[in-house]
Amino acid sequence: MGSPNDIKKGVVIRDPQGIWLVVEFQHVNPGKGAAFVRTRIKNLQSGKMLETTYKTSETIELVAVERRDMNFLYSDASGYTFMDNETFEQVTMPADEMGDDAKYLSEGLKVNITMFEGRPLAVEVPRKMTFKVTESMDAVAGNTASGGNLTKEVTLEGGIKIRVPLFIKQGESVIVNTETGEYVERAK
Amino acid sequence: MKKDLITLRSQTVKKIRQFFDEREYLEVHTPRLLSLPGQEPYLDPLWTIAHRPDGWTGEMALITSPEYTLKKMLGSGFDKIYDLGPCFRDHEPWDGSHDIEFLMLEWYRKHSSLSDLINETEELVRFVIQDEFTIKPFRRLTVEEAFRLYAKLELNELIGDDKAMKAKAKELGQTVGTTDTWDDLFHKIFLSLIEHRLGWNEDKTVYQPTFLYRYPASQAALAKRDPNDERYALRVELYIGDLELCNGFEELSDPIEQRTRFEEEIALRKTLGKKTWAIDESLLAALPQIGECAGNALGVDRLAMLQAKTPNIGDLMPLPIKKRLH
Questions:
Q1: Residue A68, SS3?
Q2: Which class is domain A66-124?
Q3: Of A55, A57, A147, the CB nearest to B308
Q4: For residue range B45-63, what is the model confidence (pLDDT) as tens digits?
Q5: Parent domain of B269
Q6: Helix ranges (DSSP H) in B220-322
Q7: Would you state the torsion angle of the CA atoms of residues B124, B129, B130, B132, taken in this order, to the nearest 10 degrees?
Q8: 20 to 30 A from B110, CA-CA: which of A3, B50, B86, B275?
Q9: Candidate from B93, B174, B187 with C-beta closest to A27
């Protein structure tokens, strides 16, 4: 048994409809109602997505999953393959299940994989990652967001596009928050 | 500290003052510390102890909104007033759109209806934010229409019917527990399928400012009921992107009904195991004098977040709560 307060990305919930993986979650407090956790969950048997909301005071059944550190090896038509460097065991995550985070993968990258009954459910890349700026144009006058938030778009290693402050130059490295996909700071 | 964003927040405050000053509203400064703060069951004031030199001590709270004092002022003869200052709410998530201390604008206008209020709010937002999404007209959607559009539900058939509501919630994949009230299930459906879509166009690429109005009466403790359909109350919220910007009412001015609703709120606070305090009798006494009146409470930091294009309320503050702890 568990509480909706323990819901996080990658947590697995069991209910009469089956086993569900939490894909997205958000704590919500509407002011005129109790505290809730809004989620998007995926049924691991049927693949069906569901948007559902739990009151934080209710009880739900959380299923124990295994979390393992693995390293990215390669991608091919079957998906993204990772290896446990101690046991040499390999697992493959289908491309459509890997989602947007695939762009952060490079050979050897250490990730945390949620395993359930021998199959990978979710791949978590490090929250903060450093990338080199491979392409950057000099700032153009008028190329500014309202409110004096001066940024420009640059391309990072692996083709990632991101907005950074004007002082970032080509060849420098920046730290990216992989949860939001946003620039954090210049890497030292 | 993000100097440009903190500056932007100050400019937002200035523009708001200019808007109301040009419309001949009076800016007033109501107290932050009260012994009888707002008692909405799901809002929690921060309490402290005041000490008088003669040894008397008493509990007082930082306000969750200036509403009670502003209504007392309306009752004493003020017609068009606004308050812009900090408010405090405990037990809210410390996330991108909440801080324990935030800037709230609250304004009231007598001889004004809910639809006047919606129009004025749209003018205010357009005046403060001049951006591409403010060019198009803001959408106006009743809660009933939103349920039809996003959840394919006829809310009229569900209001006051616990059994039907439970069945529909289950059908939509929500958990339905024995302690879930009608309002809990309303929120589960609203939060799962509706709220996060209101401020966006269909494919979630462009902001679509949307006024959501006419809520089930159980969701609007200080609003007047819709004279055409008593099951609904004249409450409005504005959504832009992922942010909920404001909450307004055509104000309830009937002290008898207001007393009943306060008593219900106190009962619910007790059920939830929360602190309770006395009904503010001087507020009830002021209500009959406010007549036809509409008022709105708007999160100023969130209005600045939209201009700054930041998902993080703390970016606009010199010291957000997370940086004040030691």
A1: strand
A2: mainly beta
A3: A147
A4: 999 999 999 999 999 999 9
A5: 3-138+209-323
A6: 255-271, 281-286, 300-308
A7: -110
A8: B86
A9: B93
